[in-house]
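From the shared-data thread, chain only:
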Amino acid sequence: MRARAEAQRNRRGGFTLAEVLLATTLGAFAMVGVLTAFISLQRSFVAAQEDMVEVNRFIFVQEQLGLDLRNTVALVSMGPEALTLRVRYYEDGPKDERVVTYRVDAAAGEFRREEGGEERVLMNQLVDGAFHYFRRGVGGVEQVAATTAEVNAVRVSLVPNHHSAGGGIERSAAVFTSSLFQLRRIALP
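Structure, as tokens:
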């Protein structure tokens, strides 16, 4: 009886070395899969966050340009890389006009706004940018304007450099890059 009890004690179920190694290997593969999915999700989150920052920056630029162009008294000068305006805001007096210059600096990859000698970068990391000038006629027909007196609409095209921090993935540069602004001319007193 004693021998039988000892034989049963020695036969108790356990795992063989092969079974333990197989389970460890499968567990490691599962953990690598979960970790890879987590890293991919994190990179996607960072890329989406960068895109939202860029979209918000572009919306700010659109609002600033729109404000200045809607309050334009006169175009001082125009070119493909620079636009100078005389603007009068609602809170300004009848004789208070500000000179505002927008510049696309392709070499530095920046879009800048200058007012009263103070220059500030509105957007950076640009690949390209340009101003296009139009005279909009009846029915919205656009014609390229030759002189500052003919211009009543300005299209601003900005092409940002899209590099994601999450793996250096390039994305389309056509996102949020062009805006058309109708000028509201104020009659000079």
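Residues 164-169, 171-176 have pLDDT under 50 and may be disordered.
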